[in-house]
Design brief:
Number of strands: 7
Number of helices: 2
Helix content: 40-55%
Order of helices and strands: HHEEEEEEE
Shape: rod-shaped
């Protein structure tokens, strides 16, 4: 009978330490899991934003090539392209340009502006034409093409190209 009493005393002296330790370990593992999920979500958002920015840049480059082809056709005697304006003597400042106006051309959801900056004389070191033959004294026509592309989830890219040609626009 004495052995049974000792066994009962052993059970009554336990205070539930195993339960408390199990709950603490479970809480730590839960916090680690939640932190890992948040980190994974943030990395997914950063990766998708990078993809949207890259897509917007690729689209802006394509639209800029379209605008450059329009300038090339105009210089070759074609009609004045859409989005064309003349900067010479206008005092225009591009930094305050309002995109949704009449001077803007559109390709899909992208917009571009072609600005003719006038003619500039070259010196002999500015440009070599065919095997280092300078074209000193020649004038070149300078165009500035600016493209704005908006992609998914607010990704916006601006791309600017300076197009220089020996021929003046018609």
């Amino acid at each position: 009978m004495k052995n049974q009493k000792q066994i009962k005393l052993g059970y009554s002296q336990q205070r539930g330490l195993a339960l408390i330790m199990s709950l603490v370990i479970l809480l730590v593992l839960t916090l680690l899991g939640v932190t890992s999920m948040n980190t994974s979500n943030l990395q997914t958002l950063m990766t998708s934003n990078s993809q949207y920015q890259t897509t917007a840049l690729n689209t802006a480059e394509d639209v800029t090539r379209t605008a450059e082809a329009a300038v090339e056709a105009h210089v070759a005697g074609g009609a004045q392209p859409a989005g064309y304006s003349v900067m010479v003597g206008s005092g225009k400042d591009f930094s305050s340009y309002a995109w949704p106006n009449a001077e803007v051309a559109s390709v899909g959801s992208s917009k571009y502006v072609i600005e003719y900056a006038g003619e500039t004389a070259l010196n002999s070191s500015s440009l070599a034409w065919r095997q280092s033959q300078g074209i000193s004294g020649s004038n070149v026509s300078v165009f500035r093409i600016t493209t704005r592309t908006a992609a998914t989830r607010g990704a916006v890219r601006y791309l600017q190209s300076i197009y220089v040609t020996v021929d003046a626009p018609a």
